[in-house]
Structures are given as structure tokens and as C-alpha cells.
Amino acid sequence: MRDFIMRHREGLLLVILVISSLLIISRQIQHPTGVSYFQRSVIAVTAPFQNGFRAVVGAVRGVWGDYLYLFGTRAENIRLKEEINQLRSEVQTMREEIYRAGRLEEFFAYQSETGFAGMAARVIGESPDPWSRTIVVNRGQQEGLKRNLPVVTPDGLVGSVIQTSDHSSIVRLIVDRSSRVPVLISRSRARAILEGEGSGTCQLKYLDRTEDVQKGDVVITSGLAGIYPRGIEVGTVTQILSRNYGLYQYAKVMPKAPINRLEDVLVIGTEPGLEGQ
């Protein structure tokens, strides 16, 4: 290669001079459009690369714009979801307030109808012991509660207070096995003792076998024993358990109050400060 250049150096030099002259001339000669032929040549060579670069830049710019749009949309969706959840929470709170207002109105109506003074209380717990049927309410000694005060709902008898603390009390339900309530059959005035069965029902005991009791009879408190006022509805007879021997007959009773889903109750009594709240 070196030998070839040395032998033809004069010719190669001539070619280089000619090409250089043509380039100089092309830079001076103007195309009718006003652009030199040299510039047109450069543009012709670089145009494909420039077009490709513009296409890449445009694509990147489009992808970036789409990303920013999607990011903004996602942020907006998150904000809207948070607002929806907040609104749902507020709606639920309003529903609870409306429900409680309705329940308190029922309690006021019940007190007006029966003449029982009392205090509304919310159920805040229940016994974890399956053998004990009790609930905990959010009223206690500081609110004027004490042992043996009856607990009801506008539907019927719930039980009685058996233990109090400063701001809470334990209520034994009428379905508890240790519960004893003196009652009457409303239709026939037959007397009996209502005992809990530990589940969701009660049983009439010590009901004379000669007494008239039928399925569907309403059971009310008799007012004996000094704990429960007379005339509070307790439940309905669902089954008669007669035997061919013995002094007594028995009957199953379904409580009128919703024992298994209590939320608010009314503690009734004659102590000062037990006004409806």
C-alpha cells in the first residue's frame, strides 16, 4: 500500500486538489433555492439521521407524556377513592346516629306508655362463657345503677343488673340458667316461674297442671319478688310439656326481646337520676 502511494503520489495529489477545488466551488455556487450545493449535499447526507433522531425524540416525548398522564390519573384515582371511603364512613356514622335516635324515641314512647322511669344504655360486651348468658352495658354506679334493677327493651324483658362498677354494669339475661322470674299467663292469669335454659329460650316451671295454658299465650311479669314491675311482656309460649304424673306442667317460652342481638337497652327503676337519656 505504501509503495502504491509512493508510486502514484503525484496523481493522488492531483485528485485531492481537484476534489478540494470542487468543494470550494460548490460552497460558492448558489442553487436556485439560495442554498449552496455543498450545503445541499450535507443536508442530503444527514437528513435521514435527523429524521430518525426526531422520530426517537418524538416517541420518547410521547411515552413520557403518557407516563405523566397515567401517573396523574392514578394519583387522582387514589384521591377519589379516599374521598369515597370518607363519604362512606360519614354515611355509616349518620345511619348509626339515625338508628340510635330511632331507638331512643322508642324508649321514650315505651316510658310514656308504661310509666317506667329509666336510663338508656348501650351493650358493650357479653360473657365469653357459654354457660353464662350475660351482657355488659356502658352505665354504672356513677350514673345511678345498682344491683337488681330490671333491664328491658320496648319489645320485652331482658334481665336484671347483677354487678356494677363506676361506668359499666353486668346484666344477667332471662335465658341464663340461674335466672328466675315470677310470671303470669296473660290470658288465664296462671302463675309460674320462668327459668332460663342457657340457649335462646326459657321454660315455665311450677305451673299447676290444672292451669289453662296454650301455645301462643303471652307471658308477662307478675310483680312478685319485688324485682320486676308487674305487666312487662316476657315472651310467648311455643310448646306445652304435659306429663301424666306430678303436680306441675311445663312450657317452652320464646323471649319477646331480641336476646341474641341486643344493642341498646333500658334500665328501669325509681332511683333519682334514672331519667331517659
Structure in words:
This protein has 277 residues and is of the alpha+beta class. The chain has a domain at 116-268: Rod shape-determining protein MreC, domain 1 (Thrombin, subunit H, Beta Barrel), CATH 2.40.10. It has 3 helices and 12 strands, in the order αααββββββββββββ. It has helices spanning 2-7, 9-28, 37-114, and strands spanning 118-126, 134-137, 150-153, 156-164, 169-173, 180-185, 191-196, 202-208, 218-221, 233-241, 248-255, 264-268. The chain has a 6-stranded antiparallel barrel with strand order 1-2-5-4-3-12. A 6-stranded antiparallel beta barrel has the order 6-7-8-11-10-9. It is elongated. The termini are far apart. Residues 272-277 have low confidence and may be disordered.
* Envelope shape: elongated
SSE string, helices as H and strands as E: HHHEEEEEEEEEEEE
**Helix and strand composition category:** alpha+beta
N- to C-terminal distance:
113 Å
**Low-pLDDT sequence parts:** 272-277
CATH architectural designation of the domain at 116-268: Beta Barrel
Biggest sheet strand line-up: 1-2-5-4-3-12
Strand content: 25-35%
Count of helices?
3
Number of extended strands: 12
Q: Indicate the CATH topology of the domain at 116-268.
A: Thrombin, subunit H
Task: Report the sheet with the most strands, covering strand number, pairing sense and barrel closure.
Answer: 6 strands, antiparallel, barrel
Would you identify the CATH H-level superfamily of the domain at 116-268? Rod shape-determining protein MreC, domain 1
Mean pLDDT, as a whole number? 79
CATH classification, class level of the domain at 116-268: Mainly Beta
Helix percentage range:
25-40%
Global Rg:
47 Å
